[in-house]
Amino acid sequence: MNRLLPKPQRSVLRTFHQYLMEPREMLCFWGAGWDKHHLALEELVEKELLVREKRPGAYSLTKAGFEMMRECERTGA
Predict the structure, then answer these.
(1) C-beta neighbour count of 29 within 10 angstroms
(2) 74 vs 69 pLDDT, higher one
(3) Sign of CA dihedral 7, 12, 15, 20
(4) SS3 52
């Protein structure tokens, strides 16, 4: 399924992996990271792979998003 995700969305999931994020752990995007990823972040929210947190620019992985992140890392997508 990960090949169905566009490259910008896979890039966001790689960012979560880089910080060793688990489901329900908040990651904040700001500055250049926000500028680069804000559209993909919202698309992943619509796909229910991320949850938008109350803090501006903050998102967390859902269980499905965590599994997708791991799948992307396993396959190198």
Answers:
(1) 18
(2) 69
(3) negative
(4) strand
